[in-house]
Description:
This protein is α/β, with parallel strands linked by helices and 772 residues long. Keywords: Endonuclease, Hydrolase, mRNA processing, Nuclease, Nucleus.
Amino acid sequence: MADSATLSVTMLGAGQEVGRSCCVLQYRGKILVCDTGVHPAFSGMASLPFIDALDWSTVDAILVTHFHLDHAAALTYITEKTNFKDGKGKVYMTHPTKAVHKFMMQDFVRTSSSSSDALFSPLDMQMSLASIIPVSAHQLITVCPGISFIPYHAGHVLGACMFLIDIAGLKILYTGDYSREEDRHLVKAELPPIRPDVLIVESTYGVHTGESREEKESRFTTLVHSIIRRGGHVLLPTFALGMAQELLLILDEYWKKHPDLHNVPVYYASGLARKCMAVYQTYIHTMNANIRSRFAKRDNPFVFKHISNVPQTRGWEKKIADGPPCVVLASPGFMQVGPSRELFELWAPDARNGLIITGYSIEGTLARDIMTEPEEFTSLKGTTIPRRISVDEISFSAHVDYAQNSEFIEQVKAQHVVLVHGESTGMGRLRAAMQSRFKERDEDVKIHTPRNLETLNLSFRGERVAKAIGTLADKPPQTNDVISGLLVAKDYSYTLLDPRDLRDFAGLTTCTLTQRQSIVLGVGWELVRWHLEGMFGKVEEGLDKDGVPTMRVMGAVDVKHTQEHELMLEWESSSSNDMIADSTLALITGIDKSPASVKLTTHQHTHEHLHKHKHPHANAEGELSSMTRVQRLAMFLEAHFGEVEFHQPDEEEADGEGEEKEQGERSEEPSLLVRLDEADARIDLISLTVTSSNEALKKRVEAVLDMAVTTISSLSEAFTSGTPLTNEDAALTQEKEGMEELAKAVSQDTDGKIEDVSSNDAKVEDNGSKAQ
């Protein structure tokens, strides 16, 4: 079973940009939203995705990949400030993500509540948290009929996952932010075992390929050490959670190996991080083998020996700035506000100090602007501050680079790839590079880069598969076997089963529908039987349980003579039986208008043989004789051309001795002669070929002859001989074989002609409307 449908992908954020990730998927009336973040470079309503473009009450589910603000911070606004709750939508994220998301949102509300453009209140945040459904990696979640998903590890940060989504059979892999490199505490992103139809993947680094992990760590620790040696302070802007924990593990190990640094403090300036450390220790089982083995040995890797929290006194930033050399990891990573911004403004004028950008910096933030190393910058208070601090970038960003991303895209093998979460220039280069790679492999993969609010429509034509269960599955089918049963559709999946198994499978029962159709008809019962045999071959005749004369057509439809001028058709409803009943009804209602009926009821001979119980042209086995076949063929032609004459070789030789005849009237085989408008055509009854001097008449007779041969062939014989009804060639072959039998039968016939056809006592007009 094949069908076609369209998947609509609309980016409300992160379309040719980094920040406010929000992807809307619509397919077969189902709507899913992946991620609901804010843009770090903006504040208030300007930071939100373009949420007005969607009726949130129609959303079936929101899936959040990880706790970073650019993927999750708009969730509270959507659940509490839009009409999302008017619908039946649900919110899902992993257990670690929900645990950390709580602390992230508390901090987000705290830092934004003092401003006039705060998006929501602490109460809104608490209400939103209560609506989140936590899930585990590799757990199959059914949202509603037709929608399910499975989370897979994505690396990046604790609890981050990618979602393999199934909407009505269409599979979509949404990666969110992911990392294909195992670091000191996280596993790398998994490759789902199922090939999706669509891959929606981040493109943060475009075609940039970073250095190896060992090289980065060595360059990072060397740079930190050199800044300390020159008497400077080291500022490491990081997010409170995620890569900060990785940097802490690196620094703690490096300090352990260098005793000369033991008197140099390493501060972690984040109260939020202190709260979340408990979460990290709770979800050790989601981390890599290195962390799990250390924890099993009671060596908690997140209890740092050489790292401490900053003093909890007011003005600690200035005290640290005026103190001896130190290293400070301060949030947030984009340096827009908070401790990282305050420390930078204090340390920027001193050339001994050093700033190391360790993650990806979004366009429009201070972290991105400062990488151009301007001579001065504007402080939060509006003053101009000279920049003499050294600026270096060593990216520990837990995003895939080009080498990792391109390899993953190729391994997923999706038909369509949608690039998101990347700046337009880098995204365009990645698209061109991937198109070139797929072209070299001669693979037809479509790569898309939609902008925000630009709806991408992807059409699919897929095969729907039905599983055979129960009795039908007892015997494995062989090639070309035909399996018949009930097709049950449930939640966009299809099951084929025997009707007897329906009760066990669905708690339902089957019933048989008997249909009846009464017909008022002014012809005799025998004439009805004659027409039925002409169309369907032998019919079974007898009495039903109530003693009513009954003929059974094709073993399926009963024709009952209920009253003198009334017939009733009765049958058990099914696709095949309904078809036979329709054709039987059409045949019976046309009997009184049939030219053949006029001819049969006009002849004394025919009138007599219709009153016999058994068909006069039936042999001992009940099969129609060759003469009857010719008779019916002639009647079919009469309905189209008027009178048809029968000729046989002996008659022509006797009647035409010594006389010249037209070439078209001569025949060495039995034939039928059709005359129309002073032209004639002869039909050879053995070869079923048509000869005529009039080409137009010849083609017309050939067309009618093809229909006649197919029509008068016995349907019942076709069934019993295994000839498919749709195989006209087989039916034609069967008719020709019958005509060959005629060659012998016609010479042995007592009168040598078909009385009903060639009699001059009756003539059927061309229009078949009256008899003379």
